[in-house]
């Protein structure tokens, strides 16, 4: 049975297909771990690079939320990323009602934001920027979700806070998810800690010194990447 899609969604997917690269189409499923039991299991790729997806997204930045929702339901990874990049463009408008609608839509579709690139290219703007002047409670709810992508959205969204010098939630969420079982989260938390450390290196150093025995090694390596070789050697030393 042929999938029924609206003319606008068909046009967008056709544009993406026209930009398909055969080599990327072969490489992406392996790169994004789509094999049996892997975190991206079953996802399908057209083989379109992010710059090309951005181009298509900007051409269609005025599509409705209903069209965005339909794109998010696509089997194609790039179609979902295109929808998210349109949402990012829309979220830059100084329209509080629209930003709230985007935030709400985003968080109802996290099962479709189902790989690290989809999360990382979108959540800082749609979630983090929206919450800058609001309660962060929703992030703590996401951090306690059973869905890996909810957890990653929670920590990576704090990038928006870090850029404003607001570090508390990054450290609190890092503590909350310190023992997460998935390596993707170890990398994400380490990344955000590293970014927080750019704002206040002394605080990050003290944080790591206190927790290095419990911190997963991948998380630790990512977090201390910007310290000097001597400091990294001290922080990586097993205690």
UniProtKB/TrEMBL annotation:
It comes from the Bacteria. PANTHER family: ARMADILLO-TYPE FOLD, DNA ALKYLATION REPAIR PROTEIN. This is DNA alkylation repair enzyme. It comes from Prevotella veroralis F0319.
